[in-house]
Specification:
heterodimer; A: 139 residues; alpha/beta; 5-stranded mixed beta barrel; B: 183 residues; mainly beta
Chain lengths: 139, 183
């Protein structure tokens, strides 16, 4: 085999393998883990107020948030995950937090929860998913 | 005679005690696309929904960013400008009615077939939508299930040409809400 052809084949091979590795790494990349991110610290009330003022608030939307508040209720959702509702100044609206793993929290407890904010349901809740209890050292 | 009095009192109490407005903050909506290349399913468990059992009104709202896909990359595509553009259109909503409300007795346990009609807002576009569903009533608790079949292009979701073979034109939206009386 001519040296030039050999070099070309090796280059094509490297590019093909590199391309495949890149494709699989991108396509099978894991879901984001909120524990790897620096969370924005906010109270339950302030978070709701920001979304009521602007439903498409980009300061909090899709961000990792560390939200503090008082637990109104805990329950299990239809997928078997623990849900914790944080009180706000609005009688109806809550910060609706779905936990990644089951945890023990009780109504009336003051808590800080870190999760991903998926947005605001008009006239109702701010939603957080993939939540964990906040780690104080990370604030 | 005594039995009859108790029976009538029971019915009256049942009718009065059944809460008119049923509510959940954690209903479930799944979306499903099927093509010969790939089946794609995503789920959202933070659906807020109201069901007015007297008027037959049904409402639900859901956040687009709350749909969880098996792969992170699928989720990223779904939310991007080329698909649902969830920064611009963060919510989807349905507001409608149970067309055959008279067929449902909320005071009697059972499974009732219902027809739901109303308006579905998705990707900033509102269009009439209808679905067949069932209401299951067990010990006064209501579970509603319905399947909407929509054509994504009618809601302006035109995916990039190279993804066209992977994402179906007709999408199934399955609603599954377990309600509790609204306090």
């Amino acid at each position: 085999m001519r040296p030039a052809l050999k070099k070309t084949l090796v280059a094509v091979g490297i590019l093909a393998v590199g391309g495949l590795v890149f494709f699989f790494k991108t396509w099978y990349a894991p879901h984001r883990d909120v524990r790897d991110e620096k969370a924005v610290v906010v109270s339950a009330n302030d978070l709701l107020k920001a979304f009521v003022a602007n439903e498409k608030d980009l300061k909090y939307l899709d961000k990792a948030l560390d939200v503090s508040g008082i637990v109104e209720e805990t329950k299990t959702n239809q997928a078997g995950k623990t849900v914790c509702l944080l009180k706000t100044e609005d009688d109806f609206a809550v910060i609706n937090c779905t936990f990644k793993d089951s945890i023990a929290v009780t109504a009336g407890q003051q808590v800080s929860i870190t999760g991903i904010c998926t947005g605001y349901l008009t006239g109702a809740d701010v939603v957080m998913i993939d939540c964990y209890p906040s780690e104080p050292g990370k604030k | 005679m005594k039995k009859l009095v108790f029976f009538i009192a029971g019915i009256a109490f049942g009718a009065a005690s059944f809460a008119q407005v049923q509510f959940t903050r954690n209903g479930k909506i799944s979306i499903f696309s099927s093509t010969p290349v790939e089946d794609i399913k995503a789920e959202n468990n933070e659906v807020i929904s109201f069901l007015d059992t007297k008027k037959g009104e049904l409402k639900f709202q859901v956040l687009i960013k709350g749909f969880i896909f098996p792969k992170a990359k699928m989720q990223e595509h779904f939310n991007s400008k080329d698909y649902m553009n969830s920064d611009q259109f963060p919510q989807a909503a349905f507001l409608g009615n149970i067309a055959n409300l008279k067929a449902v007795n909320f005071n009697k346990d059972g499974t009732y077939k219902v027809k739901v009609t109303g308006n579905l807002t998705l990707h900033g576009i509102t269009k009439p939508a209808a679905a067949d569903g069932i209401l299951m009533i067990v010990k006064g608790a209501v579970n509603a299930k319905a399947v909407f079949k929509i054509t994504r292009e009618e809601y302006g979701v035109i995916v990039p040409a190279f993804m066209g073979a992977k994402i179906a034109k007709d999408i199934e939206i399955t609603v599954d809400c377990k309600y509790a009386p609204k306090k």
